[in-house]
């Protein structure tokens, strides 16, 4: 089968990684309970930052957020490797900016994800994911972002939300932990 995955907050715990980083950089100690209660994908509100300040903070932190030690979600690496060994095709489709694309691909390899160069897509806008996903003829696609998931819900492929505090309002199949993935594929 052809399986497509978003990266940030789908396969790796990027927001929480950024949350810890913001606490350090801003010399604050905002608790994880606040993090888990956030209804927005953006995390700046938890630190009392305006949208503009939050945008600047994100841009200034991007390098560190992306390329340090962000942990993959539990079982993500193991399960994807196993599926790849079984002959499934694993595709990555991330909206990370073009200039970070190749380093992101290498980072994913370094962190144990099974990555083939011709199955790694980056630098597109949210709405362009729809096109790429359509062209690839995926059987399954996994993402966390409401705006992306909403554009895909009417498509042929099976779309799953990686469950998170900001996508609970979507009526869509969801995956909470990657240990569930094989069960999902077996139907
Ligand atoms: Mg994402």
UniProtKB/TrEMBL annotation:
<protein>
    <recommendedName>
        <fullName>Nucleotidase</fullName>
        <ecNumber>3.1.3.-</ecNumber>
    </recommendedName>
</protein>
<keyword id="KW-0378">Hydrolase</keyword>
<dbReference type="InterPro" id="IPR023214">
    <property type="entry name" value="HAD_sf"/>
</dbReference>
<feature type="active site" description="Nucleophile">
    <location>
        <position position="6"/>
    </location>
</feature>
<dbReference type="GO" id="GO:0009264">
    <property type="term" value="P:deoxyribonucleotide catabolic process"/>
</dbReference>
<dbReference type="InterPro" id="IPR010708">
    <property type="entry name" value="5'(3')-deoxyribonucleotidase"/>
</dbReference>
<comment type="similarity">
    <text>Belongs to the 5'(3')-deoxyribonucleotidase family.</text>
</comment>
<dbReference type="GO" id="GO:0008253">
    <property type="term" value="F:5'-nucleotidase activity"/>
</dbReference>
<dbReference type="InterPro" id="IPR009206">
    <property type="entry name" value="Nucleotidase_putative"/>
</dbReference>
<dbReference type="Pfam" id="PF06941">
    <property type="entry name" value="NT5C"/>
</dbReference>
<dbReference type="InterPro" id="IPR052419">
    <property type="entry name" value="5_3-deoxyribonucleotidase-like"/>
</dbReference>
<feature type="active site" description="Proton donor">
    <location>
        <position position="8"/>
    </location>
</feature>
<dbReference type="InterPro" id="IPR036412">
    <property type="entry name" value="HAD-like_sf"/>
</dbReference>
